């Protein structure tokens, strides 16, 4: 069975474990029609447009 030759230092161990739990905030883009911030590749919740085409009818 393989056995480590040297003890892994606390700094090296913690460096490896530190990046696992971090979450990133979702990126937001501006809608081309109304300028409202929205998730990319999603229909705008404010105006109902996607890529310049009206997908969902919204009451004004």
From TrEMBL:
Transmembrane segments: none
MF terms in GO: structural constituent of ribosome
One GO cellular component term: large ribosomal subunit
UniProt keyword Ribonucleoprotein present: yes
SUPFAM superfamilies per UniProt: Zn-binding ribosomal proteins
UniProt keyword terms in alphabetical order: Ribonucleoprotein, Ribosomal protein
One Pfam family hit: Ribosomal_L32p
Gene Ontology BP term (one): translation
InterPro entries from the UniProt entry: Ribosomal_bL32 (IPR002677), Ribosomal_bL32_bact (IPR044957), Ribosomal_zn-bd (IPR011332)
Recorded family membership: Belongs to the bacterial ribosomal protein bL32 family.
Protein name from the UniProt record: Large ribosomal subunit protein bL32
């Amino acid at each position: 069975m393989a056995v480590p030759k040297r003890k892994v230092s606390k700094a090296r161990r913690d460096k490896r474990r530190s990046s696992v739990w971090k979450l990133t905030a979702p990126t937001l883009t501006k809608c081309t029609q109304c300028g409202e911030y929205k998730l990319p590749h999603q229909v705008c919740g404010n105006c109902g447009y996607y890529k310049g085409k009206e997908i969902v009818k919204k009451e004004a």
